């Protein structure tokens, strides 16, 4: 979990706008197309999707998972993977502990908050369709690659 916190601290952006949201989303879409990954992808400003794609083989359920993972990242200002691991380490059920409905929140890896250094959390990048750690890694890879441009 410490590695996830350190990882997130390295992903702070200087700025975030809709053009960068599209770059991040397009980067993930390109990686997914090259590797034939059946995923849903979302880059959101706040809770509003700016980039949304469903890759071949993914289903509308992946879009719902993306929405629920994003809700976790935005509420806790931590990755959805971090929140899953935190609850597992304390042997508590995420939904019971935080009194949050399963229909709206998913503590499963794949959503990472977008943090702008002078502002804080402004949105989230989310992926669903692979095992949750792989979803998380895909998001981290895309943000890391574009971090210096932002």
Automatic annotation (TrEMBL):
<dbReference type="Pfam" id="PF03928">
    <property type="entry name" value="HbpS-like"/>
</dbReference>
<protein>
    <submittedName>
        <fullName>Uncharacterized protein</fullName>
    </submittedName>
</protein>
<dbReference type="InterPro" id="IPR005624">
    <property type="entry name" value="PduO/GlcC-like"/>
</dbReference>
<dbReference type="InterPro" id="IPR010371">
    <property type="entry name" value="YBR137W-like"/>
</dbReference>
<dbReference type="InterPro" id="IPR038084">
    <property type="entry name" value="PduO/GlcC-like_sf"/>
</dbReference>
